[in-house]
Design goal:
By secondary structure, this protein is mainly alpha-helical. It is built from eight helices and no strands.
């Protein structure tokens, strides 16, 4: 038993020495792509300005502009404080599903995953509504603004629906999205 403990102790000591030499070597001599002074607690990918628009991929800047605008300036005055005027009933969700299928699904897909046939050629690609609807910023005024004004002011191809749908119809689409895009409720 004493031999096993001694061997285990030597292995542990050897691993500790190896670890210390690796960490000190990495800190002393940063590899290519790492900033001077790199260490495992502050890697290079944490040091570069990731969220700077110059570092965003093609289409990502346009996609993020609506979010940035909302976080820094809020929605335009006509949408501030707006809340849904429709109840989340089965009938409302069914009507919202039909409206969504007729106006949104061709780009955003029947379940809000951005996989609609018409959306495949768009850059940036259609928003993943099934995920976005659960984000903290997906408040009523943000969704009403987004659907009503579309993407033209922000450089995307999403059409504005304020002239095609009434405000109540937009709220029904939002109700369908908030219900989780249930299948069998519209023309999916």
């Amino acid at each position: 038993m004493r031999g096993v403990r001694a061997t285990a102790g030597i292995v542990v000591m050897g691993l500790a020495v190896l670890w210390i030499s690796l960490v000190s070597n990495v800190s002393a001599q940063p590899s290519q792509g790492q900033m001077p002074g790199w260490d495992m607690w502050d890697p290079g990918w944490m040091q570069r300005p990731m969220w700077n628009p110059r570092h965003m991929g093609q289409g990502q800047q346009e996609r993020m502009l609506r979010h940035w605008t909302f976080m820094h300036q809020g929605v335009p005055a006509e949408y501030r404080g707006q809340t849904s005027t429709v109840a989340l009933t089965e009938a409302t969700i069914r009507e919202g599903a039909t409206l969504y299928a007729e106006n949104c699904a061709s780009c955003h897909g029947p379940t809000g995953l951005g996989d609609g046939e018409a959306g495949r050629a768009l850059n940036p690609s259609p928003a993943l509504l099934a995920y976005m609807i659960n984000m903290p910023m997906a408040v009523d005024e943000y969704l009403l603004w987004t659907i009503s004004e579309g993407g033209k002011p922000l450089g995307t191809d999403m059409p504005a629906f304020k002239d095609a749908l009434t405000k109540e119809e937009i709220w029904k689409v939002i109700a369908f999205m908030r219900a989780g895009f249930p299948s069998g409720t519209g023309k999916n």
